[in-house]
Amino acid sequence: MSLLEVNNLTVEFGDGDNPFRAVDQVGYSVEKGEIVGIVGESGSGKSVSSLSIMGLIEYPGKVKADTLKFEGQDLLAMSENKRRAITGAEIAMIFQEPMSSLNPCYTVEYQISEALKIHQSGDKKWRRQRVIELLDQVGIPDPESRLKTYPHQLSGGMSQRVMIAMAIACDPKLLIADEPTTALDVTIQAQIVDLLLDLQKQKNMGLVLITHDLALVAEAAHRVIVMYAGQVVETGPAEQIFSKPKHPYTQALLRSLPESSLGKDRLDALPGVVPGAFDRPIGCLLNPRCPYATERCQKEQPTMQGEGVRQVRCFTPLDEAGRPSA
Amino acid sequence: MFQFIIKKLMLVIPTFIGITLLTFTLIRLIPGDPIEVMAGERGVSPERHAALRAELGLDQPLLVQYFDYVKNIASGDLGRSLITKTPVTEEFLTLFPATVELASCAALFAILVGLPCGIIAAVKRGSVFDHSVMTFSLTGYSMPIFWWALLLMLVFSVNLGITPVSGRLDVTYWIDEVTGFMLIDTLLSGEEGAFASALHHLVLPSIVLGTIPMAVIARMTRSSMLEVLGEDYIRTARSKGMAPMRVIVVHALRNALIPVITVIGLQVGILLSGAILTETIFAWPGIGKWLIESIGRRDYPVVQGGILIVATIIIVVNLLVDIMYGVVNPRIRHSK
Predict the structure, then answer these.
(1) Among B28, B94, B108, B19, which residue's Cα sits nearest to residue B287?
(2) Which tens digit of pLDDT belongs to each residue from B270-328?
(3) A198, A298, B126, B209: which could join B106 in a potential S-S bond, CB 3.0 to 4.6 Å?
(4) At a CB cut-off of 8 Å and minimum separation 6, what does B49 contact?
(5) Does B231 touch chain A if contact means CB atoms closer than 8 Å?
(6) A95, B236: Cβ pair inside 8 Å?
């Protein structure tokens, strides 16, 4: 039984006959202790899909799925109360903007111990001890003196450490990290990533790592999910995705890395932007930007093809040489 | 914090000078003087008129009168009423409790109704409740006080006979004045039904006076709440799996209250100025009615002194509001 099983997950915004699908029939699974990287441009539905797993999509967003199971329990069918008991305890999440993700009115201690108070029994003294322990675990020096600090007194890196402490407070089995390093500067990014990977290993958590940072995914993730315009376009073991991308979009993402443009005057880039609510193309969603698009791509939507974990959404998946198959 | 308070106090001085100048000039711009008003239709001979003016010091050049006035204020003397000859401060103190009682009840009404309405409207945005609260508050805000008062009086006092038309207490009761607050005095007197009667008399004036502040508070709470509910830390709070009620009350409300407290503080000015109309309509013996009457009588010291005291109160309340921020918002508390 997978830790998390998602099948045909769809998140729609706006009502009427033509709602906008931010997440379109996404399916993947996360095993215990596995690191799954989700990559894609801004607007490809990475965050929205993970927010829907946390149950954080608010009206007017609508979440639908054939399967959305955590340890075999159907998250969509259970009562609100039962779901909240899982959220924050079994599944936890850290966000992109640590500075604005902490409530400016409450101390670090209050905000971390709140998670403990909601999900676990234990008195105030125990909670304080646990908060100190957690702050120590996330590498905050002299944790006792930090208990009474307010978020505005913390740097971005420190805030993210506090966020991580908050997320792991109840020893979750699955941690979703939504671009945990995007808002931080480069030196701090490495520290936070190391911390996350350390904690993941120590606690044997499932980790969903959402990021723009392909290098990080290549290094850390066991499995990679590439998303584009709300759809999963390619999945597979990390090393296969990076060495032999099958989807033109994955190929373009990899080519856009500075490393692949060594010796060239300009970096490679995929022209155009992710389609929004009003310019969704007919056929394959990538066809206006795809260098290999055929007539068929402009008319029909491809479905996921392939065996097991290695799947691709393309009529003409790329071969080993990186050229479209006939 | 101490420096902060001193800085605020320094800013108060020019405001005070402005208030004395304004009240002093404006009341003298109204045609007629206290002697003509006292004489009424019988008239007064020019000689007697001049003698009385000299007696009241009104024959002096305006500049001299103004500096005399400011000098007296500086020594804490607001002068005596030209009509009753009692000191302005004393008259003010006897009438003030009635106004405070009315204004507090109005403020209580405004906060107790406005705050929850704003919160619920924000949480259930787009709902029927939200739309009705916003419509009612817009109506309440735009409704002239005197018209609203007369409407309520017509319906509840005249047609339905539920509430009394005017005054603070039924004439059948005689209550010794201890604190000046009718609600407290009636309780102290132990007379049966007196407290209920006092409360009864407070209902309509409080609603009338509290309507505008209520509308402002409801709208402000709603917009502030809506803004806060979209913040990242609300998402964080929800991601901890807490009940929606806790998210709203513990995480959203405290942040949303910061601008609302400012607005509530600003309403004190509206309450005191609104009291002038409300007290006049409901024959409520407070400072509002007293000021209106003294304008009619051209009682210069009362108008000047009364307005000065009211202005002082508003300034003090605003200062308290500034200090309150620090209590609610740690970012202000910690900054110099």
Answers:
(1) B94
(2) 888 888 889 999 888 888 889 988 888 888 889 888 888 888 888 888 778 777 776 77
(3) B209
(4) B35, B36, B39
(5) yes
(6) yes
Task: Give contacts of A 118-177 with B, CB under 8 A.
Answer: 118-119, 150, 152-153, 163, 166
Give chain A positions within 8 Å (CB) of B243: 84
Q: How many residues are given for chain B?
A: 336
| CB-based contact A49:A56 (threshold 8 Å) | no
Q: How far is CA B140 from the centre of its chain?
A: 17
Handedness of CA B280, B283, B285, B290 (dihedral sign): positive
Tokens in use for A17? Answer: 């006959």
Flag whether residue A86 sits within 8 Å of chain B, measured between CB atoms.
yes
**Which of A85, A87, A105 is facing B239, going by the closest CB pair?**
A87
Q: Is B237 on the interface with A (CB under 8 A)?
A: yes
Q: Using one digit for the tens of pLDDT, what is the confidence trace for A247-283? A: 999 999 888 888 888 888 888 888 888 888 788 888 8
- Tell which of A105, A107, A111, A173 to mutate to test the B interface (max B CBs under 10 Å): A105
**Sign (positive/negative) of CA torsion A232, A236, A239, A245?**
negative
The DSSP output letter for B299 is -
- How does residue B336 score in pLDDT terms, banded at 50, 70 and 90? very low
- Write the DSSP symbol of residue B178: S
Beta pairing partners, A91:
A87, A174
| C-alpha Rg value of chain B to the nearest Å | 24
- Does this complex have an ipTM over 0.90? no
Could you tell me if B336 lies within 8 Å of chain A, comparing CB atoms?
no
- Residues in chain B with CB shorter than 8 Å from the CB of A163 are 236
Q: What is the C-alpha separation between A236 and A246, in angstroms, rounded?
A: 10
Residues A31-87: pLDDT tens digits?
A: 999 999 999 888 888 889 989 999 888 878 889 899 899 998 998 899 989 999 999
Q: Is A39 on the interface with B (CB under 8 A)?
A: no
Q: What interhelical angle do B254-281 and B300-328 show, nearest 10?
A: 160
* DSSP 8-state class, residue B165: S
Closest by CA to B251, choosing from A53, A103, A250, is: A103
What is the rounded CA–CA span in Å between residue B162 and residue A72?
Answer: 63
| Minimum distance, in Å, between the CA of residue A107 and any CA atom of chain B | 9
- Give the residue from A29, A24, A37, A30 showing the smallest Cα distance to A65: A24
Short-list A175, A304, A317, CA closest to A235 = A304
- Alpha-carbon distance A186 to nearest alpha carbon in chain B (angstroms): 23
